[in-house]
Amino acid sequence: MTDANSNISASKPEPYSLSVVGIGRTGAGYVDGLLRTGEIEDVLMDPRARVAALVIDVGDRDLQRVDGYAAGLKQRLEEQGVAPENFHYQSISLDMPERDELIASLDKMADGKSWLPKDIKLPEAGSHLSRAVAKAIYYKAYNDEPRILDVALTNFANHAEQSELPARIMVCFNLAGGTGSGMAIDLTRQLSSDKLTKKIPIIGVGQLPHSGDGDAPASLFASLNELDAMTKGNGKQDNPFTGGFFVVNTEHSWQRLTSYTDTGLKAVRDRFRQEVTNKFSQDCFMRFAVRDSGAALTHALRAADESNKAGKWMLFNLAKFTHPGVQVLPGEPLSKWHKVIDQWIDHLDDFSGLRKDFRSNHADVHVHVPREIGFDRIDQKMEQRMKDSFLTAKDSSIQIENHEFFDHLTSYADIVLSGLVSTDLDRYSNAQAAYNKLNKGEQKMCHSMAT
């Protein structure tokens, strides 16, 4: 059973404190997504609340934006008279160590049996890392003086535990990224077993790559297998993700944006598409996490807890139906807007990130559209599509909630499906094929756990 923090009532939402660790560029995106929600500011107005945010990356290129958001939040809280100790923020830019220095550190930790080859060529900070190298950098920063990550995790946990409100912690990263998925497992274990003294649920948030990122990498196969074994419980160690595990799918949002945007230089266009897709997905997930004092999140966690599948992962599928200036324009007939939305609801099973034979026994759907579009038509079509493509024929349930979206040109749905395991993902087999093409040494570099 996962710990969904049962003292948070779904029927009468009470405030709760959400703290977050973001690892790598993707993880940093989730942290700044949380910091920019108005809800987190509302929570911090309660003197009982404590919110901690920690961002870790190799190099500082992807930390500047989240640092700026954190500074802005601190200033707004100060202006509103919120005690500065209620909010704790730290970002850590790890250096790329020299090879011999890194190997020596690992040898000391692993009784002379470093998992890295002695002749490994390390990339520059800010470049892509293998998961094995990221794990090594994490442990060096955790164990070697001044033990920067050991201290940072201690401070993070201490602050989160000071909350007098119910609390949750999220650890966010990219499932295919070297830095994020390479560090996340060990960090979460140490946070759960060594740092926290109170029973605060830790929720994993792993973002899937989309087709715009290229073919499914071998590292994704290794990452999914390790997480699958760990969250099921392998008999050696407890699952550190005590609050559950979300897999975030961005494929639908990527497809929606890219299908009708072909102007400009390809390199510039693709970079813009990537940034918009990732940021929108991360922002939407964090709005979901804090919505209605966490009632939406609580409901999804409880549904996953009741699932009859081992592991109890949840798919968070961000399905985008309209995008500003793409395919349908302001002032065009409402019938055209409905037609476009219907078209992209019909694409749900094409871009869900799931195998066609996957079925869940429950779905939470949060529909976000402008008021003038209306909800009834969309709700009916969403319900039918979920029943046809994602839910079991018997004993399944669906909960649809409606939310007026502030942007009159954007409509989308947050869809949460419970009962997911790694092999239910459509990119799993492609990632496995990529992994099987590697030699043993190359495969070893894809892992952050002993194989």
Quick gist of this model?
The chain has 451 residues and is α/β, with parallel strands linked by helices. The chain has helices at residues 24-35, 38-44, 64-79, 99-109, 131-143, 148-161, 178-195, 218-232, 251-258, 266-290, 295-305, 334-346, 376-389, 428-436, 440-445, and strands at 17-23, 51-58, 87-94, 167-174, 202-207, 244-249, 313-322, 362-369, 397-404, 411-420.
Tag the structure with descriptive keywords.
alpha/beta; 15 helices
Q: Could you characterize the architecture of this molecule?
A:
The structure is a single chain. Helix 8 links the parallel strand 5 and strand 6. With 451 residues, this protein is an alpha/beta fold. The protein is built from 15 helices and ten strands. The longest helix is centred in the middle third of the chain and has 25 residues. 49% of the residues are buried.
